[in-house]
Amino acid sequence: MQENHADKPLQPGDRAPNVVLDAITRNGKIAIDDFRGQKPVLVGLFRGLHCPFCRRQIAAMAELTDALQEKGIDSLTVVNTPIERARLYFRYHPLPNLLAASDPERVSHRAFGLPNIEFTESENEWPHKVSMSTMSSMQIDMPGELPEPMNVMAAMEYLDKADGYEFTEDDTRMIATGHGQLVGEFLLDRDGVVRWCFTEVEEGGRNLFGGPAPRDVMSAAANMAV
């Protein structure tokens, strides 16, 4: 199958491409076309499970599964973590009703137009290039998770320690090629057309390492259900 590649994140009104991935939480494959003509679906495209921010966003998305299903909407979580590593993680950290797929090559991210940032010495060209000084000056504020606002690296280290997350060779490989991968969530109608989205690309990067408010997701779902 020829790979799709969008130049910028898909927006409401855009038709989502088909992507076929290995299923994590069940056997076989999962494809976007599995939902087309059947049900609306919320697709979450995340970095690998090595990312503590993504682990939290995945859990937040999973918490909405039942509420979304009540409105006739399915959910699909995609992580750029190799299949066996991902299965091992979710075996020990199960999330009820989670439907997840593995995408270590980030095919789905490119298809939905989510760029992989290049980190530079001094050049900023959002969302494709960001200087290390810009990243190091960013403060992450997560009340209840972090004791105080921290820079990105310190926050990641703190959260990984809090989670007891043990890195493997698979994690290291994914970080080496995709540590700048931006993420997002896309709500598709039953025809596979984007009706709502939230991405780290938006707001000039102010969404980095954060996810959509649950009320915003459910508001979009309610509008879809009307």
From TrEMBL:
PROSITE patterns: THIOREDOXIN_2. Transmembrane segments: none annotated. InterPro entries: AhpC/TSA, Thioredoxin-like_sf, Thioredoxin_domain. Residues 10-223 form the Thioredoxin domain. It comes from the Bacteria. GO terms for molecular function: antioxidant activity; oxidoreductase activity. CDD domains: PRX_like2. This is Hypothetical conserved protein. The lineage of its organism: Bacteria, Pseudomonadati, Pseudomonadota, Alphaproteobacteria, Hyphomicrobiales.
